[in-house]
Automatic annotation (TrEMBL), chain A:
InterPro entries: MetI-like, MetI-like_sf. The lineage of its organism: Bacteria, Pseudomonadati, Pseudomonadota, Alphaproteobacteria, Hyphomicrobiales. This is ABC transporter permease subunit. The keyword Lipid biosynthesis does not apply. CDD domains: TM_PBP2. Belongs to the binding-protein-dependent transport system permease family. GO terms for cellular component: plasma membrane. One of its GO terms (biological process) is transmembrane transport.
UniProtKB/TrEMBL annotation, chain B:
Keywords: ATP-binding, Nucleotide-binding. One of its GO terms (molecular function) is ATP binding. It comes from Devosia marina. Signal peptide: none annotated. SUPFAM superfamilies: P-loop containing nucleoside triphosphate hydrolases (SSF52540). Belongs to the ABC transporter superfamily. It comes from the Bacteria. It holds the Pfam family ABC_tran. Residues 5-257 form the ABC transporter domain. The keyword Metal-binding does not apply. InterPro entries: AAA+_ATPase, ABC_transporter-like_ATP-bd, ABC_transporter-like_CS, P-loop_NTPase. This is ATP-binding cassette domain-containing protein.
Amino acid sequence: MDGFAKYLGRRLFQFFLVIFLGVSLAFLITNLSPVDPVEQSVALMTNFGATDPRSVELMRQALQELYGLQGSMLDQYLAFWGRVIRGDFGPSLSAFPTPVMSLIMSALPWTIGLLTLSLVITWTLGNLLGALAGYYRSNLLLKLSGAAVMALHPVPAYIIGLCLLLAFGFIWPILPISGGAQMNLQPGLTLDYLRSLIVHGTLPALTLVLVGLGSWFISMRSLVSNIVTDDHVVYAELGGVSSNKIFSQYVARNALLPQLTGLALSLGNVFGGAVITEFLFNYPGVGRLMIQGIYRGDYALVLGVTTISIIAVAVAVFIIDLIYPLIDPRVRLS
Amino acid sequence: MSALLELRNVNKDYRIGGFFDSSTLHAVKNVSFTLDDSKPEIFTIVGESGSGKTTTARMILGNETPTSGSLRFMGQSITAIRSRAGKLKFMSKAQPIFQNPFEAFNPLSTIDYFLFSTARRFLGLRDKAAIDAATDKALHHVGLSLAEVRGRYSHELSGGQLQRIAVARALIPEPKLIVADEPVSMVDASLRMSIVNLFRDLRDRLGVSIIYITHDLSTAYYISDRVIIMYKGDVVESGVAQEVLGNPQHAYSKALSQAVLPPDPEAARKIIMAKIA
């Protein structure tokens, strides 16, 4: 138990260190950007005519307070941490005065739903196919599916997405190509609404699956082909252990360990959204929010999304560190 | 006398290269030798990397099929073994030991699990006490005991210990033949002799024949009864170990024996200096 407490302590330290460095860096980069949210807001509001310079100055001060831009860089930095802990990133510039946090919170469920589901499908399918292709090397069907996956792998998301969009949106229009659900439906646990969710999510999810499948497939296949030549596998083969058991107990189980780490990291990345796919299908998730933030110079929104995704990745890595000893005995004691 | 293992004109070819410019690699050419059933011995195959010694071992274990020639073990053709029961029966008499002890056991389960399942599989034991006893007996042959190994994972043991456990696993079914493919090349030099001596002990006490595959001439000279030297798939020399290694005839075996430095450091230094100059 003492060993585990030590392990836990080390990981916890790492966890906070990563968050500290990542969030600090995000703060620094957004701070160095030439976009000044205060001047932008002032410009927006004084667009329509001459305003009294004194009230402009007052407005400027009020805005600086809102965005936490008062005092020196160090003061701002310390105040920023206070706001991160409270979960307050100030008002959004592009959707003034809605708080950034509520914008993110309304986009997160969409992103999490879409990305988690497609990630789980991609991961399972890619690893299964990759492991089978690595183990049964001479199987023609697996060779063909391997070639198909490899051919898809280098194609970027926007091409695959556009092709799907054309195919199922225009040539054979059976699926909606924009949005997260039908506009005129009341969100809730009704059959109609759920159906609309699934129909709207199909194309973006399919894009993500097709884009992501290749890397899981390739890495799993190479992991498996390394393990197949290990002596313990050869011994089991010689001893007439059934190939199903060799595949599941000896080969796939050993090869899955690094893939689990990959899965956890990707799950953490879910919080950053799938920028291109969400933008392409106009899906109301975090990725589209982020792009909007960047285009409109919405400093607070970009910083909010970045911070949340940094924390999410760190949490995911921390969780996988905690459960790793359960699956891999080699981590348990060393 | 009857033959324990008989190889007759065994050949193995591999196709290498791509679809259009493939060529054939003769990994093993016309290898023949016989091990006697009544006289257990240590039969050594010496050769450099790529000489075909591992391919020969894999064919003896039934893991590779020869392109031509016959391999017979206790009168039965090894290549004809197809069924699971046949594999089990063959393997309970012929067991492998591999080069890398760290790969010899699946790292995700405790080692005793594999020892127990070996006992269950090959000896057909079902009773927990009998399985324990068979495992413990095999471990005692290699100077270990079940109490030391129980519940341990492969990463918790040293390479020398693991290699001895691998030998113990091979002993559980009480085999007639052990095929050891470079069993000491990844073990610490100071532990090499303990493994090699263990083989001699197994031959003398348990009557197990051992095919010892190595590129290390000194241990080969020390332990072998008979030896064959392989070079690019060919057997270039064969015979009683002391004669072959003491008085090499073929150019390759001469070069091999000259590469072994004498144990006296002064003499070794002289040879090295002469080579450099």
